[in-house]
Amino acid sequence: MDILDQRRKIEMKVLLINPWVYDFASFDLWAKPLGLLYIADALKKCGCETELIDCLDRNYPGIENKKTDNFGCGKYYKEEVEKPLVLKDVPRKYKRYGIPLSLFEKALENKEPDVILITSVMTYWYPGVFKAIEILKKKFPSVPILLGGTYATLCSEHAKKFSGAEIFAGWDIEKIVGRVFELAGKSKPEKINALKLRPDYSFYKELDYAVLRTSWGCPFKCSYCAIGKLSDKFVKRSPEDVINEIAFLYDNKDVMNFAFYDDALLFDFDTHLAMILEGIIKKGVKASFHTPNGLHARFIKKNTADLLRKANFIEPRLSLETSDLKRQKITGSKVFNEEFETAVKNLFDASYKKNEISAYIMMGMPQQDFDEVKNSIKYASDLGIKVFLVEYSPIPGTEDWQKYKFDFKDPLLHNNSIFPLYGVEDWDRFQELKDLVRRYRVQGTECRVNKI
Predict the structure, then answer these.
(1) How confident is the model over 154-183, as a mean pLDDT?
(2) Domain 3-194 carries which CATH code?
(3) Which of 139, 273, 315, 408 is close enough to 413 for a disulfide, judged by CB 3.0 to 4.6 Å?
(4) Strands 13-18 and 358-363: what pairing?
């Protein structure tokens, strides 16, 4: 059966939900529910009627006083909420980020879904997931709810026990769509080619930016990263498909900012990203491109840096993590200092200036002391680049999780804002680092804390 035949014979309504973030801090740094948007495209091609309620859409009707920076990012609407008991001793305010509950409940009026899909991102953001499920079950008591995403995959047992929804672990769109059809009592559709799907942005009346992937998975195995648990294979999309997706959003949605969600964007550069960038340049796309997930500095050769600059990559973010050689080796050997310095030089030679290149440096890693982080900040700053200090978070299923025998029963304790309380002896010194990085100035370079 072809797609058109499926579209004629199947009638099913699916409601997609991107829930709130409950946390001590959150910022819209090119955050869109990309997985849900791909699933929406697959469901539509199988004949389903889909609707999305994105609780983190800062342009949602009814949200006022929204401020957006030059690259489409900004602060969420937020409301203070009661802290969970396990976080009661953390001396910070706990908030719900996203649209007011009243707007969410209003959006559910006159909806008659056959199945509801909810995504989840950070493991410790599950309170927002649970709140959405609570409201949905009251409104639609007989409608099946399927919960997927990062939390559902990495903390499946916790989700099964406490969420009140059916759990789908993993990232297999064909199986997800198949389960949706089963829940609705429909026959499964024919095979879906996930690599040919395109995120469905039709739900958004206003787009400050778009996010995209040119690949899934990662060929590297960093000790602190769980991407291998979320996507066990590294697969790449066709450069032509990516080029057409970017050009479509640029031409038809007026999108001027694109953020790549790839975990290994520069891998096989000459036969993949280089072809994509050359293609969008040829099509006359004059947008800005961003790399919030960080770039592998090892792969930034001279021609790479030149093409990133020509395509208008804004402030390339390099994943350094630490300048300590021993820790570089034990965490996966992703990059060494000599390679990092070469990458920075190549970017400067490609006409990037000071403050136009940045590095992620991690604090709070197991057995990492104050001086290591401080020395890493100084190392990157002395190269003339900006520093983003990233707080370590222990993630179930990673090499670190097994090696250091993390055993937090409640995923709320994975929160990178509080982890140093549980991972190092001297919290005050790590707080000092965070304060230092906010005011640090080395050779005119700004260093700041970044929560991702």
Answers:
(1) 96
(2) 3.40.50.2300
(3) 408
(4) unpaired
